[in-house]
Structure to design on (428 residues):
């Protein structure tokens, strides 16, 4: 069996999409699918699908039948969610964006659980909550982390704030960052696992493609 | 001169990051930089930087001096923002996420302007606004687009809603989509320019990397 750890980052980034499509197929009562059919639905190529599936484990399509949808879902769930334990997560920055994206943490299906939220602004902190979680002052970060050991931080603060807080978070045992700030924290903290969501960059790329169409 | 149109998608997606870093250098009073120094700051390689700059136009670093920061910024601004005309944009879905991300459209620096917002929920529509723009019912979409010719749509609706509305939007002349829904609209509409921001997928990838660390 291929070790799942060998999957490259581009493959890893495609796995959730396979998982979504396969759940859709299962819901539609489809039990097996060929790489060609799956590729057509997903807008990719059969060869890409087969290569990706080769990276993730013991996934053998059967000639004339295709891949078992159930088996693929089960393998992907093991890879994406492990034993089902949800990753304890804290939100840093409870402005409009922080409140909106924290829904993806409190939703059961992504493998995370929101255990605390922090901000510096008094108006956000006093008696406020985000998706039911009380908002604490960032000064309480050390005390909270020492007691509750969160593993993931969602950074919804401006660049300067992210730069100031990320060293503290790494020192407090945070291993993963869902980073909405423009601070590229992989450079100073190469050991951290970082998923950047740079919304401004995404918009600028879209603009480039629209303005420079062939 | 290399034609900018030849830049591949991965290069295009890196351009905003170069632009951000170069603006930072300019603000710090730095007028030239080598590919090696820029790469070290950005967490990439000098070779990557040189290759990327070769793709975007007449960008020649000078031996022992490096690239002109001002020249690079000017080339990138031309590519990313063209003549400075902002892309007229509409928001589809004015829930918490739609309201949060529309800030990136109303901010002057990304090259867009928000001209309308639509929803189906009565409680969002009646006398409500999003960043100062009144929220309209989705039934008014055709009339509005015929008159104002938006070019970009931000999709902050669930998968089903996106599937229902995207054909209408393409028919109404929308060329670019900033797509937060899980509907992969590039498959049915290959002519559309689509920038997907799949937040759930992003979280699942992060989870995979945390759960399967070497």
């Amino acid at each position: 069996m291929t070790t799942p750890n060998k999957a490259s980052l581009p493959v890893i980034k495609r796995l959730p999409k396979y998982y979504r499509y396969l759940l859709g197929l299962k819901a539609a009562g489809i039990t097996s699918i060929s790489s060609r059919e799956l590729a057509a639905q997903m807008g990719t190529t059969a060869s890409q699908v087969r290569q990706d599936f080769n990276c993730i484990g013991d996934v053998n399509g059967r000639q004339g039948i295709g891949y078992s949808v159930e088996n693929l879902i089960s393998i992907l769930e093991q890879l994406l969610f492990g034993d089902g334990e949800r990753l304890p997560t804290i939100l840093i920055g409870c402005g409009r964006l922080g409140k909106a994206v924290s829904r993806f943490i409190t939703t059961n299906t992504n493998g995370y659980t929101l255990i605390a939220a922090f901000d510096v602004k008094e108006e956000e902190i006093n008696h406020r909550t985000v998706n039911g979680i009380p908002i604490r002052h960032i000064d309480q970060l050390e005390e909270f982390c020492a007691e509750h050991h969160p593993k993931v931080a969602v950074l919804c603060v401006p660049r300067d704030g992210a730069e100031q807080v990320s060293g503290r978070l790494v020192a407090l045992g945070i291993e993963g960052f869902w980073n909405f700030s423009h601070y590229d924290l992989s450079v100073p903290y190469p050991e951290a696992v970082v998923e950047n969501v740079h919304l401004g960059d995404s918009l600028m790329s879209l603009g480039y493609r629209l303005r420079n169409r062939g």
Notes: The beta strands of chain B are 32-33, 67-68, 87-92, 112-119, 129-130, 133-137, 152-155, 176-179, 193-196. DSSP finds nine helices and nine strands in chain B.
